[in-house]
Write a structure and sequence with these properties.
Elements: H1 2-28, E1 33-50, E2 53-68, H2 85-114, E3 121-126, H3 131-135, E4 142-146, E5 149-150, H4 154-162, E6 169-175, E7 178-184, E8 199-202, H5 210-236, H6 250-267, H7 271-288, H8 296-309, H9 315-342
Antiparallel strand pairs: 1-2, 3-4, 3-8, 4-5, 4-6, 6-7
């Protein structure tokens, strides 16, 4: 149930944020918005009205929508289609721009509040009946040394323990700001699936200032943008295996978030989850900018045509193009979701 709630909050929140971007820019450019819906119809209740815009709560609690006046009809006063080319372009771009901002904020939060310190090793779990449990080691302890070996990575920990199988060792730990030493005898033949001392390892959270976190968040956002744009050409050149470049639908996103949440529960930090929220948000921004009718990018394509050729495509034909595009996108979504079920994404555990 928690994974389903996480999925609804993340995917729904990113969609709602996208629509909020359109709404705010439309209001800024004086385009009349008839309705801002939280969730999808049918309507549950009207929450109020702001500047002539109905704020509604809808039955399907997932994302939201914006209904501008005259979206495809340039004869409607103060409507979107009647606005200038600049205004229409800004309103259309504002949704993807909001997703880029949300992606940046997710990456920044990951580094600020949950970045792992890769130079320190922390005990994340102690297995019942293990030497670690007998020695009094607790989850959350940070390993400083094993005998005379300084512990700065998983590899150094494994190597130091591996050299003392069957022999008593002294492990120096840091627990809640205090240093303590425990004696432990690593098992030469541990039960299957358990290590010599019976612990799971992770990294503690690294302290980081907001400026550094924002810098890393910006770098991650740009990196994700560039790599996503480069992906088709890298796929054609064989630099990326096709199975690693598959398109995922809502089921695939749910699987990824559930996997990240499971890993984060072990490490006691939401780092992977926040990273994937950033990746999904950047991907949503770019997907909406594709020049496909019904998407923001498709509508921008018509604005660009008008700017270049100084004539407008008939509202009837533009509306028909968007209707066909929406139908194709819906069919594609059904196909991708079907593939997510029959060929689910395989993630390491």
């Amino acid at each position: 149930m928690s994974d389903i709630l996480l999925f609804v909050l993340v995917a729904g929140g990113l969609i709602l944020g996208h629509e909020l971007g359109h709404f705010l820019m439309a209001r800024l450019r004086r385009v009349r918005i008839e309705e801002f819906g939280i969730g999808f119809p049918p309507r549950l209740a009207k929450l109020g009205e702001v500047g002539g815009t109905k704020i509604t709560l809808n039955w399907i609690p997932f994302g939201g929508f914006v209904r501008p006046a005259g979206e495809d009809d340039p004869t409607v006063p103060d409507g979107l289609a009647a606005a200038s080319k600049t205004t229409r372009a800004l309103v259309l771009v504002a949704g993807p721009a909001m997703n880029l901002l949300l992606g940046f904020l997710a990456f920044t939060a990951a580094f600020k509040f949950a970045a792992p310190d890769l130079e320190r090793v922390q005990i994340t779990s102690v297995l019942p009946g293990s030497p670690a449990e007998a020695a009094g080691i607790l989850p959350g302890d940070i390993v400083l040394t094993v005998d005379d070996h300084s512990i700065t990575s998983f590899e150094s920990m494994q190597q130091a323990i591996g050299e003392r199988l069957g022999l008593t060792s002294r492990i120096t730990l840091q627990r809640e700001g205090e240093t303590l030493i425990v004696e432990i005898t690593p098992r030469a033949s541990p039960p299957e699936g358990e290590g010599p001392i019976g612990v799971l390892l992770g990294n503690p959270t690294r302290a980081m200032g907001l400026a550094e976190a924002a810098s890393l968040g910006g770098q991650s956002t740009v990196y994700q943008l560039v790599e996503t744009v480069r992906l088709p050409s890298r796929l054609i050149r064989g630099q990326v295996p096709p199975e690693e470049a598959r398109v995922s639908g809502l089921k695939g996103i749910y699987d990824i978030l559930a996997w990240a949440s499971d890993i984060d529960a072990t490490t006691r930090r939401p780092f992977l989850t926040l990273q994937f929220v950033g990746v999904i948000s950047v991907g949503l921004a770019l997907a909406n900018l594709l020049p496909i009718p019904a998407l923001d990018g498709g509508r921008l394509m018509f604005v660009a045509f008008e700017a270049v050729f100084r004539r407008r495509v008939s509202a009837r034909y533009e509306g028909l193009a968007h209707a066909i595009g929406f139908t194709v996108l819906l069919a594609l979504m059904v196909y991708v979701t079907f593939q997510d079920f029959v060929n689910p994404i395989t993630l390491p555990r």
